[in-house]
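User: Could you go from structure to sequence for me? I need the amino acid at each position, not a summary. Structure tokens:
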């Protein structure tokens, strides 16, 4: 093992890894070496690896990772430098989910307009509800306006019932807590998955409305974005003082027997709400 003097760029990378958990060479080059070539970035990573600050998972994992690029995480000296206890990944699916999430969330690590936004990673935040705990994939916090966003990266593998159960927990938490200025944001990679999540949200609402006496003026701020546009939408949302544009008015959903919507919502407002939420009118018919 060699001894090296850490540069500012090296320290920034070490600081990012506890939140990102794992980063690919492409991600590291984009966010820490954008003014240098990928070859130069690889040389620095090799130097940091030899000094024990980072570890190449592709060459050290005991299971197959079917990717064509290296994956990096903190090494023993990296944990020691940051004063952290070591962690490790035990499943390739966990790594893939984290890498996809990092494509979105790394935009919030000391990047331009988002430099004052704090991003806490997977498992750092746990919220209790009577239906079970909520563990967002990430939480964004803006200290300037008090805005928070619970972020979930949907990899299109979670079946309907578990997804509904997770959404029910979020709904109960939002209804039972002082959840002002907080949004729930789902990132998806397929168009049909967007509508699927909204339909599951609708189902979760119907199942809870009577038990929890959800009123017309109670809002559950839900956003759904496509993977390639998520960073931009999250940036707009975290800097906004207003509630999510895609908020759902709880009492405006019908039950399964087609009962009338509660409240006096005229047709023009109803159509506008449908357009804002990209929902089919059939949901309210």
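Assistant: Here is the amino acid at each position, in order:
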């Amino acid at each position: 093992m060699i001894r090296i003097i850490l540069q500012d760029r090296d320290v920034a990378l070490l600081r990012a890894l506890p939140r990102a958990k794992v980063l690919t060479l492409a991600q590291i080059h984009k966010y820490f070496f954008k003014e240098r070539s990928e070859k130069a970035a690889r040389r620095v990573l090799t130097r940091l690896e030899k000094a024990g600050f980072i570890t190449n998972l592709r060459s050290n994992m005991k299971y197959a990772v079917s990717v064509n690029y290296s994956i990096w995480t903190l090494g023993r000296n990296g944990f020691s430098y940051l004063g952290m206890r070591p962690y490790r990944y035990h499943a390739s699916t966990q790594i893939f989910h984290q890498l996809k999430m990092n494509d979105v969330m790394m935009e919030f690590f000391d990047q331009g307009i988002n430099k004052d936004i704090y991003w806490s990673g997977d498992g750092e935040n746990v919220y209790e509800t009577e239906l079970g705990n909520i563990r967002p994939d990430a939480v964004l916090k803006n200290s300037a306006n008090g805005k928070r966003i619970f972020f979930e990266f949907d990899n299109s593998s979670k079946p309907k019932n578990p997804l509904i159960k997770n959404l029910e927990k979020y709904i109960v938490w939002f209804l039972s807590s002082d959840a002002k200025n907080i949004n729930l944001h789902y990132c998806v990679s397929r168009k049909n998955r967007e509508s699927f999540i909204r339909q599951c949200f609708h189902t979760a609402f119907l199942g809870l409305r009577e038990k929890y006496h959800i009123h017309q003026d109670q809002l559950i701020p839900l956003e759904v974005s496509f993977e390639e546009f998520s960073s931009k939408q999250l940036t707009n949302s975290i800097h906004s003082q207003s509630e999510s544009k895609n908020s759902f008015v709880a009492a405006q959903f019908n039950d399964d027997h087609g009962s009338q919507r509660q409240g006096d919502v005229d047709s023009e407002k109803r159509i506008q709400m449908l357009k804002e939420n990209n929902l089919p009118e059939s949901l309210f018919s």
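One structural detail worth keeping in mind: The chain is about 40% helix and 15% strand.
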